[in-house]
Amino acid sequence: MNEDLKKTVTDLAVRARAASLALAVSSTAERNAALLDLADRIDRSEAALLAANARDVQAAQANGLPPYQVDRLTFNEERLAHLSESVRQVASLPDPVGEVLEESRRPNGLYLRKVRVPIGVIGVIFEARPNVTVDCAALCLKSGNASILRGGKEIFETNKALAALISESLASAGLPADAVQLVPTTDRAALEILLRLDSLIHCIIPRGGEGLIRFVAENSTIPVIKHYTGVCFVYVDQAADDAMAEAIVVNAKVQRPGVCNAAEQLLVHQGAADRLLPRLGASLAAKGVRLLCDEASGSILGRAGVKTEPAKPADFTTEFLDLVIAVRVVPSLDDAIAIINRDSSAHSDAIVTTDKAAADRFMAGVDSAAVFWNASTRFNDGFEFGFGAEIGISTDRLHARGPMGLRELCSYKWLVTGTGQVRG
Amino acid sequence: MNEDLKKTVTDLAVRARAASLALAVSSTAERNAALLDLADRIDRSEAALLAANARDVQAAQANGLPPYQVDRLTFNEERLAHLSESVRQVASLPDPVGEVLEESRRPNGLYLRKVRVPIGVIGVIFEARPNVTVDCAALCLKSGNASILRGGKEIFETNKALAALISESLASAGLPADAVQLVPTTDRAALEILLRLDSLIHCIIPRGGEGLIRFVAENSTIPVIKHYTGVCFVYVDQAADDAMAEAIVVNAKVQRPGVCNAAEQLLVHQGAADRLLPRLGASLAAKGVRLLCDEASGSILGRAGVKTEPAKPADFTTEFLDLVIAVRVVPSLDDAIAIINRDSSAHSDAIVTTDKAAADRFMAGVDSAAVFWNASTRFNDGFEFGFGAEIGISTDRLHARGPMGLRELCSYKWLVTGTGQVRG
Asked: Is B61 within 8 Å of chain A by CB?
């Protein structure tokens, strides 16, 4: 253990904790002023941000990063404009802090209020997307939380430039500069130290691929809110409306195949398979989707002249994140529910049916964060749910499940007012 | 790694997961029937339970356990009657499952409902109190969760007898017997295996001392809800009512000193110290409380003829769980808030004052699970808060903070009803 590194990281967390106490009693106006100042500052600092980002891009190219990864970490004028706009949007959202969630008067006269408060100090661990730096800092700040940001080494120069702007904006609004801090090293040892500071940091949110999330979950003694990716299902029931089934299946699969709420798996009731599968298969194939089929679906699609491939067992639990879908024919609604509860990642699963009883049974029985009836899985999203912003889509069951917005970045505390009550 | 043990524990969790899916769609009546049957069965099985418990008691005595620990694990007729009564009370509570927490209609016509559902599979890790076995099983069952119970070796015979009764009650109500399972070994290796089954178990609740909780938190890849003990403060403000201050300080310290919401620390505003400290000190001393004092409070109490001892620095952050209190004089309300945020365990902290502005500032500024104004810290309790029952008092900030009742044993899911909506 490097003692200097341990001291650096611990001191940073101590400062974050102190800042979080000041933030918890800061006003909405102060936090919004910091955010609006940051948006303006990003606009005014375009040249400096592009220059810092160019150093990261050059290093990434020199290190042979594949072009799509280099693209992901690259800023340009348009992306910077989008970034400052997203900060202004966060500033415009209602403040979640201070809302009274419940109140009651006890028989002994005690008056209880359950009030939404910030969580405290949140550690955000992310990879190589510099917009995450600003998005996460803005959401944490808006919700009154101090944040500790630890990004990937590929965007370290960009992050330093962004963190400097954020700290100027905090100072301009009279808020502690330590309310948002960047871990000053991308050393993995620093991350391991950070993940064990459970007396100072209250929540860890890893934003990135499954490997990162798993590493964090296994090494953290701080509670982690995980945003794993999705193996999402669409089940087309016997009583589905044909055109609606086609529209939803195609949208869920192809509208943006690389995201967590895109469909990866198609189940079709055997009573609808002959009628519907050819239409669904042809539509998907026309959009360039590869169909990995079980025997029953492959046979029906083959007779209909739609090109398919036989699925391997692993395909039925795979998140393809691509124009690929696995297809199965199922004997009943209850089989569909059981398969989804076994093979899905409990993220976003849909039924298409005109049969309300079937839909009710599906929605009660499918144990997933979001269950859709006659709508695309792609709607499992903080913006679509009306949260205004999201820090991710939680695949956990504790604290937050599904889209995680400003309210989910909060905890609560109990305020109890008495007139001298004591326990007998 | 013992592969047989790994298989035993994993199979148990697989069965728990299957049972949890059945429980999630079970009716309130079915779950209540199982609970009422269990209460009756405990009453009818008194002789068998006492016999099983006697084997644990004999072993504990043979192993030289101190008498207070032997007492803790001992059943008698009265304790068994209390146990069955507590199960009947859980049955009588409202079912938390299925409540619609929010609903909204989106501009695109999607209808969203956020519905309370069980968490899924909960692992409860506890030590040597056999009432915990039944209490936790009952609370998990009522809230639709499958539970895996892992108790200490000191009560293994008692736990086996209780688990057999629970499984008969589940069967009698037509619920899966695997809905409540006892880990069939108290081998620590089995616990370590269990704590890493994060794809099957959704939540771990350790019930026991700090050492157990810390071991679980450090070894679990499953989210843990921690119930650490409390370093609770009472702050007596300059504007306190004298008699009320005396009543609250004495109650918070002496009514039940061994529990987590008992006060361990007293702060007195310097403007009230000369007036109030002698009265508070004399009252506490009369109840047999040792007063560990800072210089200022020791000097005032000494002049008033109250016996004190000088406090060591560590006393100001200690949970005594005994008739001992540490006492300090503080220069201001803001100092009291800062001291509490630094030295308390953020569990239950109180202000005594007639000054509403001071109380508001204290309640906003103190970052604890429950903050009391003119009431004893002893009220931080699920029963006192009207929850009907509690599985513990969470010292975490995610998911549940403060008393954890049936609702806090639930998660939620999003049910989205459409008419064919797709994303553009």
From this structure: no
CATH of the domain at A266: 3.40.309.10
* Closest listed residue to residue B203, CA positions, set B183, B218, B225: B225
Name residue B105's beta-bridge partners: B111
Query: Which among B171, B146, B137 has a CA at the least distance from the CA of B19?
Result: B146
Residues of A in contact with B398 (CB under 8 A): 119, 202-203, 223, 225, 398-399, 411
Q: What is the pLDDT of residue B1?
A: 59
Q: Are A372 and B416 within 8 A, CB to CB? A: yes
Residue A309 belongs to some domain of the structure: yes
| Together in a domain, A38 and A178 | yes
Residues B143 and B215 in one domain: yes
Residues of chain A contacting B110 with CB distance shorter than 8 Å: 375, 379, 384
Question: Within this chain, do residues B209 and B279 fall inside the same structural domain, yes or no?
Answer: no
Does A245 lie in the same domain as A181? no
ipTM above 0.90, yes or no: yes
* Shortest Cα–Cα distance, A182 to chain B (Å): 23
Structure tokens that stand for A290 in this block: 């590869």
Q: Check CB contact of B15 with chain A, cutoff 8 Å.
A: no
Residue-wise pLDDT for A101-158, tens only, equals 999 999 999 999 999 999 999 999 998 888 889 999 999 999 999 999 999 999 999 9
- Cβ contact A421–B374 (<8 Å): yes
* Contact with chain A for residue B401, Cβ under 8 A: yes
pLDDT digits over B137-193, tens only?
999 999 999 999 999 999 999 999 999 999 999 999 999 999 999 999 999 999 999
All residues of chain B having their beta carbon less than 8 Å from the beta carbon of residue A223 are 223-224, 396, 398
Q: Is A204 on the interface with B (CB under 8 A)?
A: no
Residue that has been written with the tokens 């059945």 in this structure: B22
Q: Is A146 on the interface with B (CB under 8 A)?
A: no
Q: Which amino acid is at A193?
A: I
Cα B278 to Cα B296: distance, rounded to the nearest angstrom: 12
A244 has a chain B CB within 8 A of its CB: yes
In a domain, A99, yes or no: yes
- Identify the H or E element spanning B414: strand B410-421
Sheet with B180-182, side-by-side order of all strands: B180-182, B146-150, B121-126, B203-207
Q: Please indicate, yes or no, whether residues B206 and B181 belong to a single structural domain of this protein.
A: yes
| A255–B380 C-beta distance less than 8 A | no
Domain containing B168 equals: 3-228+404-416
- The mean pLDDT of A286-312, rounded to a whole number, is 98
3-state secondary structure of A10: helix
For CA atoms A274, A275, A280, A286, the dihedral sign is positive
Contact A75, A130 (CB under 8 A): yes
pLDDT class of A208 with cuts at 50, 70, 90: confident
Q: Looking at the domain assignment, is residue A127 inside a domain? A: yes
Let me know whether A182 and A264 are in one domain: no
- Residue B51 makes CB contacts below 8 A (sequence gap 6+) with none
Tell whether B335 and B259 lie within a shared domain. yes
Tell whether B360 and B279 lie within a shared domain.
Answer: yes
A215-226 confidence digits (pLDDT tens): 999 999 999 999
Is residue A391 included in any domain, yes or no? no
